[in-house]
Write a structure and sequence with these properties.
The complex is a heterodimer of chains A (278) and B (123).
Chain A (H helix, E strand, L loop, with lengths): L2 H22 L4 H11 L4 H25 L5 H21 L5 H21 L12 H5 L4 E5 L4 E5 L4 H18 L4 H11 L4 H25 L5 H19 L7 H25 L1
Antiparallel strand pairs in A: 1-2
Helix pairs in contact in A: 1-2, 1-3, 1-9, 1-10, 2-3, 3-9, 3-10, 4-7, 4-9, 5-8, 5-11, 7-8, 8-9
Chain B lengths: L1 H29 L9 H6 L9 H9 L3 H29 L3 H24 L1
The chains are: A mainly alpha (278), B mainly alpha (123).
Chain lengths: 278, 123
C-alpha cells in the first residue's frame, strides 16, 4: 500500500466512524481501532492514540449542530462532567491496581445488561417518578423540536444523583481502559435520568470530547499520536460527524433506540471476548 | 450562551482542519514518492517512527516548516477545543451571575487541568 492509498483508506473509514459515532454518542474508537490494527496492520499503541483523536473530533464536529438544535442539554452535560472527569482521574490512579481482563468482563456484562434493559424500554406509565431536589435545583428541564415526530418535545430529567454516580463509574472505566465510555453514558442517561434517546446520544457526544481531552495529553507525550495516521482520522471523522449531526434530528426515536441496542450488544461481545481471551 | 459555544466549537474545528490539511498537502509536496512508493508507508506508521511529542518540539518543528509538526499543531488545536469550551462556559456563567453553574463548570475545568498535569507527569 502506498502512503497516499493509506491516507485515503483511513479517511474513508474515519468518515463512517464519525457519522455513526456522532449519531450514537460514541467516540468511534469502536470502528477506528479494529480497522487500523486488523485491516491496516498499524501498531495497537498508535491505533489507540488515533482513537483518542477520533473521540475528540466526533464530539467537536457534531457538538455545534447539537447545541444549536437543543439536542444536547448543556446543563445536564456540565453537571455530569463533574462525574466523568473525577472518574477519569480515579481510573488513571487505579490503573495497574486492577487487572484489565477482569474489567473487560465486568464492562461487557454491564453493557449486556444495559442492552437488555434498553430493549425492554422504560415503564414510565405505571408510576410517575419524582423529579427529586437535585434535578429541580439544577434546572435540568429541557426541550427540543423533533423533526421526525414533527413536534416540540419537552422533558424533565430525573434521578440526577444516580446519574452523576453512574457517570463517575463511566469516567473511571474510561480512565482505566483507555476507551471512550459513550456506551455507558447513553444507557445511564436513558435508563436512570429518563432523557429522550436523541438527547442522551447528543449529550453523550457533547461530553466525550472533554473526557478524551483530559487523557489526550498523556498519549501525546508518550508519542502515541502519529501525525500521519491521526491527520486522516481527524479530517475524516470531523466530516462524518458533521454529516451525522445534521441527520440525527430526522431519524425516528424508535429506530435510534434499536440501532443503539444493536451496537451495545456488539461492544459487549467485543469486551467479553477481550476479557476471556486476554 | 448557545451561540458563543457553537461559534467557539466551529472556530476550533475549522482552524484545526485547515492546519492539518495544510500539513498533509506539504507532506505530499515534499515527498512525491508517497504517491507511488510502497515501502515509504512502513517508516511512517511503524511504532518507532519519529515525530514530535512535546510542545517545544512541535513549536520548533513548525518554525522550520516541518509538515509533521504542522499536522501535530493542528491536532493540538483540536484537543484544546473541548477544554476551551469548558473555560468559555465558566465565563458565560459568571456573566449570567449563575453561581451554581459557575461553581460546577469551574470545578470541571479544575479537574480537567489537574488530570492534564497528572497525565503529563506520569505519562
Amino acid at each position: 500500500m502506498t502512503p497516499l492509498l493509506f491516507v485515503l483508506t483511513v479517511g474513508a473509514i474515519s468518515l463512517l466512524a464519525g457519522f455513526l459515532g456522532s449519531l450514537l454518542g460514541l467516540g468511534g474508537g469502536l470502528i477506528v481501532i479494529p480497522a487500523l490494527t486488523l485491516l491496516l496492520h498499524v501498531d495497537i499503541r498508535l491505533a489507540i492514540g488515533a482513537s483518542i483523536v477520533s473521540v475528540i473530533a466526533t464530539s467537536s464536529g457534531a457538538a455545534a449542530a447539537y447545541v444549536r438544535d437543543r439536542l444536547a442539554n448543556i446543563r445536564v452535560a456540565m453537571f455530569l462532567e463533574l462525574g466523568t472527569t473525577l472518574g477519569a482521574i480515579t481510573g488513571a490512579y487505579l490503573a495497574g491496581v486492577i487487572h484489565p481482563r477482569f474489567l473487560f468482563i465486568l464492562f461487557g456484562l454491564i453493557l449486556g445488561y444495559s442492552a437488555i434493559a434498553m430493549l425492554r424500554g422504560r415503564r414510565r406509565s405505571e408510576e410517575e417518578v419524582e423529579v427529586g431536589p437535585w434535578a429541580r435545583v439544577l434546572r435540568l428541564r429541557g426541550s427540543y423540536f423533533d423533526h421526525a415526530a414533527g413536534e416540540e418535545i419537552i422533558y424533565q430529567p430525573v434521578r440526577a444523583r444516580i446519574g452523576l454516580a453512574l457517570m463517575y463509574i463511566a469516567g473511571t472505566v474510561s480512565g482505566l481502559l483507555g476507551i471512550g465510555s459513550g456506551a455507558l453514558k447513553v444507557p445511564a442517561m436513558d435508563l436512570a435520568m429518563e432523557l429522550p434517546i436523541k438527547v442522551s446520544t447528543a449529550t453523550s457526544n457533547f461530553m466525550i470530547g472533554v473526557t478524551a481531552a483530559a487523557s489526550a495529553g498523556v498519549y501525546f507525550s508518550r508519542g502515541q499520536i502519529d501525525p500521519f495516521i491521526a491527520a486522516p482520522v481527524a479530517i475524516g471523522v470531523l466530516a462524518g460527524a458533521f454529516a451525522g449531526s445534521h441527520t440525527l434530528g430526522r431519524i425516528g426515536s424508535r429506530s435510534m433506540r434499536m440501532a443503539f441496542v444493536v451496537v451495545l450488544v456488539l461492544v459487549a461481545a467485543q469486551m467479553l471476548l477481550k476479557g476471556v481471551i486476554g | 450562551m448557545d451561540i458563543a459555544i457553537t461559534t467557539l466549537l466551529r472556530a476550533g474545528v475549522l482552524l484545526s482542519v485547515g492546519i492539518i490539511a495544510a500539513g498533509m498537502v506539504i507532506t505530499f509536496v515534499h515527498h512525491p514518492d508517497y504517491f507511488s512508493s510502497r515501502p515509504a508507508l512502513g517508516a511512517l506508521t511503524s511504532p518507532t517512527a519519529h515525530f514530535p511529542n512535546t510542545l517545544i518540539g512541535v513549536i520548533a518543528g513548525v518554525r522550520q516548516g516541518g509538515a509533521q509538526a504542522i499536522i501535530m499543531a493542528g491536532l493540538l488545536v483540536l484537543i484544546a477545543t473541548p477544554v476551551a469550551r469548558v473555560a468559555l462556559s465558566v465565563v458565560i456563567f459568571i456573566i449570567a451571575r449563575d453561581r451554581l453553574y459557575t461553581a460546577i463548570t469551574s470545578a470541571v475545568l479544575l479537574i480537567l487541568l489537574i488530570s492534564f498535569a497528572v497525565g503529563l507527569v506520569s505519562g
